[in-house]
Design goal:
Blueprint (H helix, E strand, L loop, with lengths): L1 H22 L1 E11 L4 E7 L11 E5 L5 E11 L1 E10 L17 E4 L11 H4 E4 L4 E6 L5
Parallel strand pairs: 1-8
Antiparallel strand pairs: 1-4, 2-3, 2-5, 5-6, 5-7
Length: about 140
């Protein structure tokens, strides 16, 4: 009897675990506006531990951008808090260029960037992924 019950419950529990995993993931639809032509555009979702580092588990690189608005969809993102970080390597030198004053010279964008009044913090720029799709729209900021 126990062996029969195990044969019935094991697939059922596995299916339930799979459904829970699906229910705790969503797509993140990202629109980046005002992108200049040229160079590569790096788009990443970062956890608090990855924030402001050259890390991220979910993202995409748009090579040789044509400019304008760019929309991408990152699928099946697990529930949690993330920050959107965008870097436009406009001069295509694979270096995030900074001025002598410490200001970005490459294009950049972050989630909730309109709330920034100084150096970005995860607390300010994060957003939450739950079980519904998230749509983000941000404009690239260029220093010149």
């Amino acid at each position: 009897m126990r062996n029969t019950l195990t044969k019935i419950l094991t697939p059922a529990l596995a299916s339930a675990a799979l459904l829970v995993g699906i229910a705790n993931a969503a797509d993140v639809i990202i629109t980046i506006e005002d992108v200049r032509a040229g160079g590569d555009l790096y788009i990443a979702l970062q956890t608090e531990g990855q924030f402001m580092k050259n890390e991220g588990d979910y993202g995409e690189i748009v090579q040789d951008t044509e400019g304008g608005d760019i929309t991408i969809t990152l699928t099946d993102i697990p529930a949690g808090d993330y920050a959107l970080s965008v870097w436009h390597d406009i001069d295509d030198d694979a270096v995030f260029d900074m001025s002598e004053q410490g200001l970005p010279e490459d294009g950049w964008a972050m989630s909730n960037q309109s709330e920034l009044r100084g150096m970005p913090t995860f607390e300010i720029v994060h957003f939450t992924v739950a079980d519904e799709d998230v749509e983000l729209t941000e404009s690239v900021i260029y220093s010149n």
